[in-house]
Write a structure and sequence with these properties.
CATH superfamily of the largest domain: Response regulator
Number of strands: 12
Shape: elongated
CATH topology of the largest domain: Rossmann fold
CATH class of the largest domain: Alpha Beta
CATH architecture of the largest domain: 3-Layer(aba) Sandwich
Number of helices: 8
Strand content: 15-25%
Structural class: alpha/beta
Order of helices and strands: EHEHEHEHEHEEEEHEHHEE
Length: 225
């Protein structure tokens, strides 16, 4: 799992990053709200850990912008002795949880694990981009006219990942890790085969969305204007 950590205090940031890495979380560290937007818009993370009171663009402002961009990666806000009003404001901005500083490493790890477990728990079973709909419950893709097609479990899992990060490139390595497992012998051509299957079904439904190939990197799900 990958975590994006944003903290204005370099020493605190390094300590948290080292702790996360010891507990098998890949970690990127940034120090400004602008960097949060940049990294979270170009990379795939399982959770963001953000200091609420970052300079210039605050952590709260960064979370609001991400939510406006329909980026729903789980967010844990941190702040030193926040008031009830500050906690409410943070959660209203789109954060999923709030932790008071100072905190123990044990509490921090428990919050991160709970956050990543809950990822996607409250999302609708039907998601869409343009007139392209994915019904995760019935394992079908649909267009706005009500026409639908059944898809396989692997196709469902790949599409769910692409829908989670619309207009963002999802790397092939991440698809293999999430769908086939980190120790799988699956190769890039396995992904390409299933992407081809999905594209053919999307073409048959004549939807105004496409799966774009970023050559040598991965794929992104985009609405066609």
């Amino acid at each position: 799992m990958r975590i994006l950590l944003a903290d204005v205090n370099v020493r605190n940031s390094q300590a948290l990053a080292e702790f996360l890495q010891k507990n098998h979380f890949g970690t990127d560290t940034v120090y400004t709200g602008t960097e949060i937007i940049e990294y979270a818009s170009s990379e795939i993370y399982d959770a963001l850990v953000i200091e609420a009171s970052l300079p210039k663009m605050s952590g709260l402002e960064a979370v609001k912008i991400l939510r406006e961009k329909k980026n729903y990666v789980p967010v844990l806000l941190m702040s030193e002795n926040p008031s009830i009003d500050e906690i409410v404001e943070g959660l209203d901005s789109g954060a999923d949880d709030y932790i008071r500083r100072p905190f123990s490493f044990e509490e921090f790890l428990a919050r991160i694990k709970a956050l990543t477990r809950r990822k996607g728990e409250f999302r609708s079973s039907t998601v869409s981009i343009g007139n392209f709909f994915l019904d995760k419950k019935s394992c079908e893709i649909q267009n706005s006219s009500g026409e639908s097609m059944k898809i396989s479990l692997k196709e469902l899992l790949i599409l769910t990942l692409l829908f989670d990060f619309p207009h963002q490139i999802v790397k092939k390595e991440l698809i293999i890790e999430k769908i086939w497992g980190g120790n799988s012998a699956a190769e890039y051509n396995n992904v390409e085969v299933y992407i081809s299957f999905i594209r053919k079904k999307m073409e048959q439904l004549n939807v105004n969305a496409r799966i774009r190939t970023a050559r040598g990197i991965g794929y992104s799900l985009e609405e066609i204007a």
